[in-house]
Amino acid sequence: MKAITYDAYGTSQDLKLVDVPQPKVGPGEVLVRVKAAGVNPVDWKLAAGYLDPILEVRYPVIPGWDVAGVVEAVGPDTFDFAVGDEVYGYVRKEWVELGTYAELVSAPVRTLARKPRSLGFEQAAGLPLAGLTAYQSLQRAGLKSGETVVIHSAAGGTGSFGVQIAVALGLRVIGTAGAHNHDYLRALGAEPVLYGEGMADRIRALAPEGIDAGLDFFGDGAVEILQSLVTERGRVVSIADYEAAAKGAHQLWVRPDTADLTFLAELADAGGLTVNVEHALPLAEAARAWELSAAGRTRGKIVLTV
């Protein structure tokens, strides 16, 4: 089968489109014919070696964790899905090696759910990692309907999912973003606030009684700002500040979860969650996709079509 691979830590220029053996399918796994694979910043950060202290890597690596496709075969003693089922998921395994930038991927059933019926394969491939991150961050903060949450970097891939999910859960959402994204946030249901110097004062003006929780999807000192605003210090969650736990906040690492993926799919099918795919590139252009991701100027998702 065709797949994108790299043989050592490096950059987008080290990616190659090559022929590799078809993956084996073990118990509790299914073989997925990939229709689209989502591209996330963690893909190129991992390839650059940034996560070497915590993740086992075995070369050659096929990158990618997000997938949408069709079940082609099922492993022994596996009854969760059948051949022909349309699925999507966050296929993170015990080590980094056999990812989703390929024609086929073997996926543990714990990493998959049935694809949202209302989304095409490209849209579905853009949802798992970022959608799960947003939803699990809201869960970690213990938010309940009627409460107020600030989402830092609300117009980004994870942030825009966070806004939509929070609104669907009945939360008041204040979202930080550049001025050019404020109309976009209003359309999603958030109250926009300009980030940068004076951000805390602008949030206090909107919520003088304080906020219930804060989600940091960007970093750059946001944890401390959010902690100064929340009524309970422990209700700040960050995916971007690796010292968040030492500061008394929660540092979240997203987990594959079939139930959470099913929730996101049902929310999308109910009209409460949309996926904006800004770039859909063929598998052979994975390097270009990484360059677009690293530039940080893409509002929607980037996916590879297979």
Which helices and strands appear, and what pairs or packs with what?
Layout: E1 2-5, E2 16-19, E3 29-39, H1 41-47, E4 57-62, E5 66-74, E6 86-90, E7 96-98, E8 104-108, E9 112-114, H2 121-125, H3 128-140, E10 148-152, H4 157-168, E11 172-177, H5 182-188, E12 191-194, H6 199-206, E13 213-216, H7 222-227, E14 236-238, E15 250-251, H8 258-269, E16 277-282, H9 286-295, E17 301-305
Parallel strand pairs: 4-7, 10-11, 10-13, 11-12, 13-14, 14-15, 16-17
Antiparallel strand pairs: 1-2, 3-5, 3-8, 3-17, 5-6, 6-9
Helix pairs in contact: 3-4
Spell out the key features of this protein.
ER, seven-stranded mixed sheet, NADP-dependent oxidoreductase, six-stranded parallel sheet, alpha/beta, 306 residues, NAD(P)-bd_dom_sf, Rossmann fold, Quinone Oxidoreductase, Chain A, domain 1, 28% strand
Describe the structure.
The chain is α/β, with parallel strands linked by helices and 306 residues long. It folds into two domains: 2-127 and 275-305, Quinone Oxidoreductase, Chain A, domain 1 (Alpha-Beta Complex), CATH 3.90.180; 132-251, Rossmann fold (3-Layer(aba) Sandwich). Helices cover 26% and strands 28% of the residues. It is built from nine helices and 17 strands. Strands 3, 5, 6, 8, 9, 16 and 17 form a seven-stranded mixed sheet that branches. A six-stranded parallel sheet has the order 12-11-10-13-14-15, with helices on both faces. Helix 5 links the parallel strand 11 (172-177) and strand 12 (191-194). Helix 3 crosses helix 4. It starts with a strand and ends with a strand. The mean pLDDT is 96. This is NADP-dependent oxidoreductase. It comes from Streptomyces flavotricini. Residues 10-304 form the Enoyl reductase (ER) domain.
